């Protein structure tokens, strides 16, 4: 998960305790989770690639910051999200199964948020489900060191979205269940990470923030002021290109309403219902 924090505060706030939601906000997130679960149940799918908006990356043109795999057969609870997260106190990455409501509570803003869901075709979904539920395999693909801006073709670091990318690679590409093998397959398949280019903020943060790093990136990229990073947008583009039968679902919430969009173009700058969308009040 790429986190840049609040520049005006002089430091990233990734590991600060978030402001807990009040009762009304918590209730809205429970309703939103119920709507999302109903959509997943109705889809007939067994696994979904899910992403949520998190810390503000709009300045970099990124709505979604964090992705995971929502599994109907999760050992935790139906549709729990298996994901990588950074354990701040331990200063290391961990794998974590999180229910949908808790996953959605990770949104930065309790009044506005977005969720993107990709529902894979049956054969592709079955392979991903097997790999994701294989806990030894999932843990074998977990790096020892975390970096929010990890380079996707180096085993030095890993971020949450990169773990998903590498799991997809092993699920679909086979081969040795190693990070190096997964990265080789992704490169051979034309996987394109998200490019963050020309931002002094990211390079400044790499000197002061312990989960943003320069090492691991090609020297040519560093000289050009460029970071290439796995983000939900790059995962989604890769999946949609590789599996054209993938179905897309997007949900947004704003104040007292939820908009569900099944297929079609992504939401624009605002959470506004278009033709064919389902709008649900949260009163």
Mean pLDDT: 87
Total number of domains: 1
Detail the poorly predicted runs: 1-13
Helical stretch count? 9
- The level of helicity is 25-40%
The chain-level structural class is alpha+beta
Task: Briefly summarize what is shown.
By secondary structure, the chain is α+β, with helices and mostly antiparallel strands.
Q: Mind explaining what this structure looks like?
A:
The chain has one domain. It is of the alpha+beta class and 283 residues long. α5 (160-173) packs across α6 (179-188). β8 (247-254) and β9 form a beta hairpin. The protein has nine helices and ten strands. The radius of gyration is 18 Å and the shape is globular. It has helices at residues 23-43, 100-104, 122-133, 135-140, 160-173, 179-188, 200-205, 219-223, 232-242, and strands at 47-52, 66-71, 80-87, 92-98, 112-119, 194-197, 226-229, 247-254, 257-262, 278-281.
Main attributes?
283 residues, two-stranded antiparallel ribbon, alpha+beta, disordered N terminus, eight-stranded antiparallel sheet
